[in-house]
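Q: what sequence does this backbone want?
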């Protein structure tokens, strides 16, 4: 079956300088979409943009530097979109990392939660009015099977002191923080799917597969870094994993389907905890306070 045309569609992909975000940008560009890529890796992002234009023959591809963990940069990015583009039809929230160093953004939030959940939640809120006006539109949240592995989100320790236990570096801490952030993305997906009922905007979450061979582990240290290097040939293929991004962004088969979790273009169950409505609401309450979102569309 031939890929559908995306001519006239405007697609935003965060964290698109490498890995599955870059692959999705390339394939959507081949279908004729207007692509806005962002990433905090500026040189890599510019190179990716130029390469995608060359491969796709589509010159409607732009790269904008943006660290999704810094909320002032997310606001500037959204403002640029609203000023220069008439619509947003697809938003793929892909940016992510695994870093064993305990770091905080300029607003004091732990980096995994800031980049993977809070920055993306903010971007959704800032672009939502535009997406409502340009609907039908699709939001795709790149989560992970890792959301099932942790013990949940400790809302009394959002700065992760209990995870890092006073240390500056902790490989295990990085994985725990990653689990929490990916669970937060699932919570947000379900809560927003409920709130968006009756609109023509869908929101779905994606598992790329178990341990995909991308740069997400580039910051790991010591034996963990060696371990990732040794098992890299066994990791999931990012080209295959990115097909779910493309499927959810383009396929008429999923038109109107919302609030689901997908892996390799098939629906899949999330953890029992992820369906806890009280935890979903608690996450949204935390997010709005953290982002100072007093008045939002949702």
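A:
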């Amino acid at each position: 079956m031939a890929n559908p045309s995306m001519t006239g569609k405007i697609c935003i992909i965060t964290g698109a300088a490498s890995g599955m975000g870059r692959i999705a940008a390339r394939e959507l560009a081949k279908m004729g979409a207007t692509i806005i890529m962002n990433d905090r890796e500026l040189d890599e992002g510019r190179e990716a943009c130029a390469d995608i234009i060359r491969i796709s023959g589509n010159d409607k591809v732009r790269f904008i530097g943006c660290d999704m963990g810094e909320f002032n940069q997310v606001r500037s990015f959204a403002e640029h979109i609203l000023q220069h583009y008439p619509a947003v039809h697809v938003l793929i929230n892909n940016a992510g990392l695994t870093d064993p160093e305990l770091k905080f953004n300029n607003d004091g939030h732990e980096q995994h939660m800031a980049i993977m959940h809070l920055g993306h939640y903010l971007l959704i809120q800032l672009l939502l009015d535009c997406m409502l006006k340009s609907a039908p539109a699709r939001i795709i949240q790149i989560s992970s099977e890792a959301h099932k592995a942790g013990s949940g989100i400790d809302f009394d320790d959002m700065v992760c002191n209990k995870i890092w236990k006073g240390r500056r570096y902790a490989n295990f801490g990085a994985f725990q923080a990653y689990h929490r952030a990916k669970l937060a993305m699932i919570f947000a997906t379900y809560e927003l799917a409920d709130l968006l009922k009756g609109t023509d905007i869908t929101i779905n979450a994606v598992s790329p597969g178990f341990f995909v061979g991308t740069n997400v582990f580039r910051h790991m240290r010591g034996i963990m870094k060696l371990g990732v290097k040794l098992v890299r040939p066994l990791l999931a293929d990012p080209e295959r994993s990115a097909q779910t991004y493309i499927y959810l962004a383009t396929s008429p088969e999923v038109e109107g389907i919302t609030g689901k979790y997908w892996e390799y273009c098939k629906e899949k169950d999330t953890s029992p905890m992820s369906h806890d409505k009280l935890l979903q609401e608690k996450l949204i309450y935390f997010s709005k306070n953290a982002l100072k979102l007093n008045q939002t569309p949702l």
